[in-house]
Amino acid sequence: MTSNPNSSNPTTAKNVKTVSGITVRLAGDSGDGMQLLGTQLTNTSALAGNDVATFPDFPAEIRAPRGTRAGVSGFQVQFASEEIFTPGDQLDALVVMNPAAMVTNLGDLRKGGILIANVDGFNEKEFKLAKLESDPLEANVIEETYRIFKVPMTTLTRTAVAEHGLSQKVADRCKNFFAMGLVYWLFGRSLDTTLRFIEDKFGRKPDIAAANVAALRAGWAYGETTEAFGESFQVEAAATLESGTYRNMMGNQALAWGLVTAAHLSGKDLFYGTYPITPASDILHELSKYKNFGVKTLQAEDEIAAVCATIGAAFGGTMAVTASSGPGIALKAEGMGLGMILELPMIVINVQRGGPSTGLPTKTEQSDLLQCMFGRNGEAPLPILAPRSPADCFDIAIEAWRIATECMCPVMLLSDGYIANGSEPWRIPDLGSMPKITINHPAGTDLDEPFLPYARDEFLARPWAIPGTPGLMHRVGGLEKQDGTGNVSYDPANHQHMTNTRAAKIDRIAERIPEQDVFGETSGDVLVVSWGGTYGACHTAVKRCRDAGHQVSHAHLRYIHPMPNNIGDLLQSFKTVIVPELNMGQLRMLLRSKYLVDCVGVNKVQGKPFAVTELVDAIEARVTPQASSKGKAAVQSRAG
Amino acid sequence: MTLPVLKAADFASDQDVRWCPGCGDYSILAQMKKVLPDLGVPREKIVFISGIGCSSRFPYYMNTYGMHSIHGRAPTFATGLKSTRPDLMVWVITGDGDALSIGGNHFIHALRRNIDVNIVLFNNRIYGLTKGQYSPTSSEGQITKSTPMGSIDHPLNPLSLALAAEGTFVARSIDAHVKHLGEMLKRAAEHKGTSLVEVYQNCNVFNDGAMAYAQEKKQRAENVVELEHGKPLIFGTNSDKGVRLVGNRLEVVNVADVAVDDLLIHDEKEPNPAIQMMLARMRYPEMPEPIGVLRSVEGVATYNDQINEQVQRAKETKGPGDLQELFTRGDTWEVA
Ligand SMILES: Cc1ncc(C[n+]2csc(CCOP(=O)(O)OP(=O)(O)O)c2C)c(N)n1
Ligand code: SF4
């Protein structure tokens, strides 16, 4: 076979080893273009038919000090020939652009894994910036532990792009495409998608486009020609995915698309009121592109204005959504309470990040569950749903709107940074076969009887009578209202009655959601209960434990409030219930208090998702009494 | 089809009005009910949105659509509603504490966005509902429940603030001056864009007479100048005093002492708010306080028109959204 690096899908003449999956992390300075590299590799792998899962990890500062450990930006992707649920724990390959990136990421590279270092980034100045005494590549243990490739990427890139006459600064910026080319060679990826991307992105600057193409091809050719690389790897297309047409989707994008779809299915326009905050902002960026779908976005003056404008839009009869992240949700609390007592349908999205306060804005955590559950004054219960993965965001947005309109109440959606920025293949649905969401606004008439804005249907929902309808004029407000008429009432018995009714309305949602499904047996030794973005890690860990012969089942909650009706029985059917969470035990507290079942927490707040091995260790510590927990996450029993 | 002719009484809801006897709020409610039938807008197309405070109970008393919301945020609810339902006439009812303290931010942003809603700010210079603490418009040194040694806050001037935010319609009236008040509400309703009417409202329980200099008929002529577009600023019981511009400040003169042309001619339509700002800053007792329309600038695009216009334009240029096409656009692959 001859190799032709100028084709868009060059083939290697070297040895190709087929493997079932690869986990690779690309790490460099935040200005090095690592996120771009990672996204390209993901898309290319997805298009090759692999199942993919990603985990971008970047500093909170836009331009963190160059070369420092704080400035390291990483992007991890796992691509596999079988169905996967996480971006992987241990790395098979790590690409580092400078010493800081190396020392902060090396711990995750498995023994015998591939380490590719841009040696041009390794010099005295960079060692100092990374607070290192000496060259970390020179340590003996590195050579012994990993398969290391030292590549002078900057120099090679300069040579490759020389003919395009760019300034050195601009030329050096092409080195991420060189790295990309090398990675593509190593994993047998087609250059197609990225060549198209370069054309799209730099088409108007032909010299930059040409230079990036040259760097990409040079990286590929380097892998092919250099003696050092003896073999490359191939991951076959995944056969386990359900048949259909797929595309790669990030969580926030899927949420946005789900919202637009929900609006379409209910015959409504969409109003989205928000205030920028990481990691929720991308929903705004995405939705603001879809004005031709009837989408209106308001960038409000703050989160309070955003939620209140959303309530205003809902009062007017529009599908209304607001989103934020932890601190912004705190600001929205009073407005959400009003939305609850007004009994208007809307969606409130919380893309959680590390807290408290500003906390770790670019890192993931699940610690706003109790805030969403209880963070309003007075008795103000609201339904809570949580997507379990990037693609699930699409479905859950539609489900949230269905519940909001059936129940006439705000519905909370708890996503997180890990889901929001992560991506996975999404099976494109057939719009025509998706069930419609029926909404009935009461018609205006000259009523003989006075209109009762708080009359209730079988679901205890009140009518959504909208301004402009003759004969239905009514006033709503935050003061307690008399049942039926909605008039202000301080009657003690009425307040009790209304409080009970509003709670019952939420509780009854349990009758209209699916029973909790279980992976594995529905009774036995150990049940792992998880929610939200930890789905993938928990599912994979349980699978691994089951493969090892342990009797472990997994229940993943998408409906958190109310919970499916069978949860209590389910919990009681296992000897041990393990609840892994990226918080200090919030779901565990809810389960224990509601179902009086002891639960064991596996809790971690390090701004990082669970590693599968951590969970496997925690589970094994429970199934085999003598095995000890080696997991980094603290295993906590009782109420911790 | 002829629309039924409505009367003030048709705008009264079935709820008992529960303000303290003698409160200025009654008069504003009465004027609103009187003005609305003249506007020819059906009741079901009108929405009153208020914050929290005595004045904010207002929507309950109107037989229209209404929302009693949360403290200070009424303009934001109105923004969401008017953006999505431009066909509705939206009124915001607020107090000085509600609009300028907790809601100061939203007040500014509603005005700068020029959302087409009518804000009526009941200014009694006190917190009524919470029983008598000083407000952002209370005078310096004012003794209240929370300021036993006198307030040390510098008062905020709602009209200056509104002009600074480039408000396109800024006016002031007085609860007791019913005819004038009705006229201002009407003008506000007719304005396209955010209109602000500050109404001096007597809280006879916690701040009785704080604005008596302007409210009481006998004192009013001496202490208040009624602005009229294109007319000179003349006031006084015998219309013997005027205001003129000297250099960059305003001064009070005896009309008899100056030529008629010397007096400041009011121009509410002037886009540059500099002189309107000077008028807003005229304070009793040094100067007569202006009532009437300080500023009324037409032709400034409204937020609601623009947000809807962008949707319309996007539909025209990109075609109405096709979701299935969106789903499949770009890089996709098949799994058999
Ligand atoms: C978040 C919040 N903070 C405080 C209050 C208490 N509160 C209610 S009305 C009010 C002040 C009202 O003053 P103003 O706007 O001048 O209205 P008035 O009662 O004088 O008409 C305050 C502080 C509240 N309801 N909500
Ligand atoms: S406290 Fe003052 S503002 Fe409130 S109702 Fe009584 S008089 Fe009116």
Question: How would you describe this structure to a colleague?
Answer:
In chain A, the strands form 5 sheets. Chain A has a 7-stranded mixed sheet, with helices on both faces. In chain A, strands 3-4-2-5-6-7 form a 6-stranded mixed sheet, with helices on both faces. A 5-stranded mixed sheet of chain A has the order 19-18-21-22-23, sandwiched between helices. By secondary structure, chain A is an alpha/beta fold. The model of chain A is unreliable at 626-632 and 634-640 (pLDDT under 50). Chain A is 35% helix and 21% strand. In chain A, 55% of the residues are buried. Chain A is globular, with a radius of gyration of 27 Å. Chain A has 4 domains: 16-235, 3-Layer(aba) Sandwich (Pyruvate-ferredoxin Oxidoreductase, domain 3); 246-433, Thiamin diphosphate (ThDP)-binding fold, Pyr/PP domains (Rossmann fold); 442-512, no CATH class; 524-639, Rossmann fold. Chain A has 21 helices and 23 strands. Chain B has 336 residues and is an alpha/beta fold. Chain B folds into 2 domains: 8-227 and 266-303, 3-Layer(aba) Sandwich (Rossmann fold); 232-265, no CATH class. Helix content of chain B is 31%, strand content 18%. Chain B has helices at 25-39, 74-84, 96-102, 104-113, 158-164, 178-190, 212-215, 217-223, 274-280, 303-318, 323-328; strands spanning 46-50, 65-68, 89-95, 118-123, 169-174, 195-200, 224-226, 234-235, 241-246, 249-254, 289-296, 333-335. The longest helix of chain B has 16 residues, at 303-318. Chain B is globular, with a radius of gyration of 23 Å. The mean pLDDT of chain B is 96. At the A-B interface, helix 1, strand 9, helix 10, strand 11 and helix 12 of A face strand 2, helix 2, helix 4, helix 10 and helix 11 of B. Bound molecules: thiamine diphosphate (TPP) and iron/sulfur cluster (SF4). Iron/sulfur cluster (SF4) is lined by residues 19-20, 23, 25, 54, 124, 128, 203-206 of chain B.
